[in-house]
Specification:
The protein has a domain of 73 residues. It is 6% helix and 33% strand. It contains 1 helix and 9 strands, in the order ββββββαβββ.
């Protein structure tokens, strides 16, 4: 005879993990990312909080601002800006490293990742 709780039990299924690139080191103020990293590749990258959704904090840069996984809102998606992304929020960076943030012609903040010590390969 089954106990009433046994009928509701489901077999455990291990979660499937998705790899979003690799971080080789996060020490001494620089972030060294692998070649397969989805960090934006341009010099200045639209990093304004207003352009993003589904934001999840995944770590902290040694300078004191957070690192995130996020999606660009549909109206901000273009080639290279769709799917899950890994990066920073310009508003947070601006408080710590203001020289790394600029405002683009569209009025949204952009971040120069090189000025954050983030090496893009």
């Amino acid at each position: 005879m089954k106990k009433s709780g046994d009928a509701c039990r489901k077999e455990y299924a291990a979660p499937q993990l998705t790899r979003f690139g690799s971080v080789r080191a996060l020490t001494g103020g620089s972030l060294d990312v692998g070649e397969d990293s989805p960090f934006p590749t341009g010099k200045n990258n639209q990093s304004d909080l207003r352009c993003k959704e589904n934001i999840a904090r995944v770590g902290e840069h040694p300078a004191g601002f957070d690192l995130y996984l996020f999606d660009y809102k549909p109206e901000f998606q273009s080639a290279g800006k769709h799917g899950r992304q890994f990066g920073v929020m310009a508003q947070e960076v601006e408080r710590v490293v203001p020289e790394a943030v600029s405002i683009g012609p569209d009025g949204y903040r952009q971040v120069d990742y090189a000025k954050l010590g983030i090496k893009l390969h």
